[in-house]
Amino acid sequence: MSFITLFLLAFGLSMDAFAVAVCKGLAMGRITAKGAVTVGLYFGLFQAGMPVLGYFLGSFFQSRLMAFDHWISFALLSFIGARMIQESLDRKEKPPESCSLSPGNMLMLSVATSIDALAVGVTFAFLDVNIPYAVAFIGLTTFLISVVGVKLGNVFGAKYKSRAEMVGGAVLIALGIKILLEHLFNFKF
After folding, report:
1. CA geometry: angle at 57 spanning 54 and 58, to 5°?
2. How many CA atoms lie within 13 A of 25 on its CB side?
3. How far is residue 92's CA from residue 108's CA, in Å, rounded to a whole number?
4. Tell me, what CATH number does 76's domain have?
5. Range of the domain at 66
6. Model confidence over 88-142: pLDDT tens digits?
7. How many domains does the chain have?
8. Residue 178's pLDDT is what?
9. Which residues contact 137 (CB under 8 A, 6 or more apart)?
10. DSSP string covering the chain
């Protein structure tokens, strides 16, 4: 997997965490560096850990799925991306996330924002990916984007939350199409 592809994947996956981090920043009256780093650490660690779990699940079933692994990758990434775009277009007013940084609250939000990364980890089992490098990059990217999201949410509110989810969804769909084209037509991007 090329650096550009990995960067786009990490960026796309981090958009859910970014959107929740923006809401956290919106809900927090006065943010501190410790609060922003706490949000970033939770989201970054879970976003890095879930692909590892997905990779092991995908590796376990890889021999049974090898003939159509590219279709699985395409379907998972497209589904996740489409869901993110649909959520970004949902115009219902949602209350801001709780500003609590309690372990229970952060654990729940971290799992919710990293489920997509679990599915991506399954696709890693079918691709030529350096897993330690990829998950470290995904985790670091999510950490940084989440810390920035807390600050932006505190400064600008939820104005850009839906746009971030839409861009992240579009990136994941594009990656799914890229994987499919590479396997079906032997294109190299």
Report:
1. 85
2. 27
3. 22
4. 1.20.1250
5. 3-185
6. 787 665 544 456 788 888 888 888 778 778 888 888 888 888 999 999 999 999 9
7. 1
8. 77
9. 6, 7, 10
10. --HHHHHHHHHHHHHHHHHHHHHHHHH-SS--HHHHHHHHHHHHHHHHHHHHHHHHHHHHHHHHHGGGHHHHHHHHHHHHHHHHHHHHH--S--PPPP----HHHHHHHHHHHHHHHHHHHHHHTTS---HHHHHHHHHHHHHHHHHHHHHHHHHHTTTTHHHHHHHHHHHHHHHHHHHHHHHHH----
Sign of the Cα torsion 135, 140, 141, 142 reads positive
* 187 Cβ neighbours under 8 A, 6+ residues apart: 181
- Token pair of 82 as six digits: 């489409």
pTM of the model: 0.70
